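Course exercise 7: structure representation. Students receive a sequence record and must write out the corresponding structure in token form. The form below is the worked example handed out in class, using Glycosyltransferase (321 residues). Read each field label carefully; the graders check that inputs and outputs are placed in the correct fields and that the protein name is recorded exactly as given.

STUDENT ID: A-19
EXERCISE PROTEIN: Glycosyltransferase
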Amino acid sequence: YSSNLIIALKQKGCIVNEWSCPTSLVKLPRFIIDLLFVFSEQFIMPLMCYFGKYDKVIYPYNSCSILAAFGDKSLLIIHDFIPNKKAKEKISLSALYIILTQRIHTFFKRDVAFVSATTKRIARNVAWLKACTFYLFPNSFYILEEKLSELNFHKDSDCNYTVLISGNGENKEFSKAMELWKSCENCKSQKLKVIGLGSQQEWAYGIIKRREIENVIILPILSDDELISEIKNACLMWAHSTHEGFGRPVIEGRICGKNVLASNISAFREHRDDYVFLYNNQSFCEKYLLALLSNNTDNSHYKVKYHIILEEQIEKWLRKH
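STUDENT ANSWER:
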């Protein structure tokens, strides 16, 4: 998200410096990375912004600096409200951190942006956000479009698989997705390749084994080129989820010229066109077959509408101060 956002900011004339986790630290234990992130976000970033005399600072992933809330330079980008769900019996430390920083940021009436119209629409009914100025900073796909234009792609003649974009989060319902796949007679003649569980292969294969499914492959962590190749060679793209902030897999599939089978949720409905097939648990098999048989080589000329929206909203935010 942030890499694409930087491209949009530069197109609007901004000089952008990005602060991110050094690659040398990414293999550290997760809890150490989390602690370093909190320390960096709460102390290093405010100091850098103050002494570096930056005009603006963007916190692009749900949380933000508490110190930054005392000034008017910061923008918090909210992707979804999953950490804020009251129904959770036990809230994780990471969710508490997100909730705390969001509440303080909005208490001081600082600017907030959302990654989708769905999330922004939900936010209008959230009491603690009502005093803030809202912006829409949707997901963008500059990098993917550039990769596709540069990639010398060779179509695999043995296209006989579907690609599922998944993860180990509760909203991804990987176990439920496997139940749907097994229950559909039309899926038995197809392979399923799963992207997004490369670092949880053992966990994912455990679910597959318990359901006695034989035609599912969990792909390892992929490079950008490998990801594009897997999607381009697939017969169909599948996105299963109960809740999403934006619904990025649908757009990625459409940019790659694929029909997309997607859960019938608000974030996916935003991107619906003639090549996006929405399903519920009862209609999965019917919609899967329809999406598979409706494959059409003419669907590859997809135009991303969100870049214009993002650039207009960036300009609006920059003009505010």
